[in-house]
Task: structure prediction
Amino acid sequence: METDKKSIILNLYCDEIKEYPLKIPFINTFEKWTYIGMLIVPEFISDKLYKDLINLRCLSQPPKPWGSCSEPCPYHNLNNTEIHYQNTDDSIKYKIASNWVKYWLDDRENIYFYILGINLTKLDLDKFGPKKQKDKHSTIYNRFFRTALKRALKTYFRDYDNIIVKNIFHDKGNAEYHEYFPWHSIYKLQSEEDKIYFANNHIKFINSDHRKPDGDPVHSQFIQFINIILGCFANSLHLNATSKNKYSLTVSAFPIISRIIKNPNNLNSRYNYYKRQMVQFFPKEDLKGMDEQSLEYRYKKLNQFYTNRELPIERKINGQLSIFDF
Result:
């Protein structure tokens, strides 16, 4: 008799950081990076995760469940704001973001995410659309979004017989109007993978601000959450946001960030991030101009994803930054 197949239902929440500059010390040059962040929320976790995040908006002491004040709270409207890494110089946004970062570090089982960093400087742009195409970034983002989606689902949920993606939510932006992006990744994976299914054949674009008409009271909260996580990783790797609050947020997240990047396969980490939280980078080698028939090219092409990168935030924490880092 055939055993019951194991299935899991997921929603995905996606955000990006586009063409983020990275200064290379000593040689006075810059690389450009794009980051794709995906928060993966199993349906049976969704309600708890939402309630935990929304309750962490309450900044009273002691904190109360969100909306449970016996009298109209003068701070409720102030706390009911969009949380975005770039806007955390605002004290209230910073305090809520800090609560979320602490929640991330304390979690051991509910938070799943995948981040892919793409080094645009090392890509051969001729392989991403016609040479005359002006907007190469959209084609690059479309291609690697599919890669990120596939890697996340197959890495974290490979033990399931059926991986059902109910919806993919993406922060509103230019990708919404791309000819292929809203549907192409779903179409390709649906046709290529025999146990990944999509209940919706188009990505849903929503405003990350849950108060806006084109936002969502629940789903926009999750996009804000992955934005905070993505911002902390990007600043650890680039150290471009040096304001007090952004630096403090990044330092708070550094204990788990450093472990995920330096030791991604640690099954014994007290943070229990293995097969739940991962950051990868591409490409490791610059293959532009190499003979594609050569053994060296074929070898390097097979080993282009990597995890370990230098973290400038670590040198700043330890007081080891030099004048060449600025």
User: Anything to note?
Assistant: The radius of gyration is 20 Å. The longest helix spans residues 136-156.
